[in-house]
Amino acid sequence: MAGLFISFEGGDGAGKSTQVGLLAKWLEERGKEVVSTREPGGTELGAQIRNLLLHGDHVSPRAEALLFAADRAHHVESKIKPALARGAVVITDRYFDSSVAYQGAARSLDSAQVRDLSIWAVEGLLPKLTFLLDVPAQESSSRIDGELDRMELAGSDFHCRVRDEFLALAKAEPQRFVVIDGTQSIETIAEQIKLSVEPLL
Q1: pTM for the predicted model, two decimal places
Q2: How far apart are CA 87 and CA 101, in angstroms?
């Protein structure tokens, strides 16, 4: 496709949303059309699924994985692919790597099966670049303000497994992932991200 697809991954509180906003602003200043989105919740349907997943009653691990995949399929078909087709830069706060880490590893489902489900849902669409903002689980949790959602309440062991899986995914796909120390200053992280994105423009 004509556009550029970038995803941000990391644990809760890693600073993804902040960096998505800064990258989008920088790209727009360079004259690029930018579509910033998130998973779950990047579409109207996704917002409803997000509410069920993060603020509803207990959801079984398999149902959770399927709901995330359903959101992702609709998100890609209705928002991401059309934007890429017209040449936009699409930046998403989370994509299928989050499902592999959260539902695959941390919920003790089969990570390969969860990945295959997501790849099927998005018809094989991979980001050109994935930034993993790596922050120790304990520090990530200390950054979260306000009422916690179901994922954020899952406990330290859960979030340690999430982090370990993200790092394993990055090691397995070094051509796609850029791992950044998320404990650095916001400005330092933003500069490292720009250096990785600029050659792709």
Answers
A1: 0.90
A2: 30
